């Protein structure tokens, strides 16, 4: 069991629409406020996406990332609140084959090259950015991240001095990460997030989590999460198996059936569970030291 637990809160994500849940943050102001809310509740790390403020849809606008991170850093300074900033680098991999010509992308396709997938990371220089470490079926589209794309991305992330959080959606992604480590493209100690319950990758259950944990390289830091109603159960399971915790509105909208959550409510619930298990919640500075994540700004 892990007795010193770091909570990450993914405050908005890319998939949930505002009309399904009014508490899902959309604007830079709302997203930065949500990160502060999560930190006050006990999260050491806030994981950020941005959305188009007019449509509520996920987007890759580097100006929105710059505005959101700038607002968050200002609020941290003015309110005396500390949180590690973790920004997605997973956008720009969605491929939906065109119905008449599957060699081309159809509606819903959003493909970027490795440099463009990381422009906002270079601009904002967070402590951590995610790295979706391979391709997979993601609901009704394919997420594409080839080995050579990952080599280029990890080399760029390493040059930036940002810690990659390796998002593993199935066992092959862990194998790919170990290969990147062997090539000197990911520095030790590596940081993994085991992502469970996304259709149609690794299922959210203890057997899957244990199998993935057992394939991690020696000395790896790791956490895990489950989506939807599995969120709190997978949080507890991760701690039991030696990992850290991720809870937030990107992954789950509800406290219980019919009761909509906020990010703060989800973090508070996870903190209560972890502490009742006898573990201690670590703060942002603890997380930086444990994960070797450097604050550049």
UniProtKB/TrEMBL annotation:
It holds the Pfam family BKACE. Coiled coil: none annotated. Gene3D superfamilies: Aldolase class I. Keywords: Metal-binding, Transferase, Zinc. Its cofactor is Zn(2+). InterPro entries: Aldolase_TIM, BKACE. This is 3-keto-5-aminohexanoate cleavage protein. It comes from Kiloniella antarctica.
